[in-house]
Design brief:
By secondary structure, this protein is mainly alpha-helical. The chain has helices spanning 2-38, 40-50. Residues 18-39 have a biased composition (Basic residues).
């Protein structure tokens, strides 16, 4: 039972992280669209720095 409970808690945390990431990605996408006008190389650098 303890193992299952721990697994469920981990899954819940992962779902919360995914939701937060999706919200952050939506904000970043708007910024990336502006960067595309400058150059694709800047986008690749920003992606690597974000990770």
């Amino acid at each position: 039972m303890k193992r299952k409970r721990k697994g469920e808690k981990e899954k819940e945390k992962e779902k919360e992280k995914e939701k937060k990431k999706k919200k952050k990605k939506k904000k970043k996408k708007k910024k990336k669209k502006k960067k595309k006008k400058f150059s694709k190389s800047q986008i690749s650098l920003s992606c690597s720095s974000n990770l």
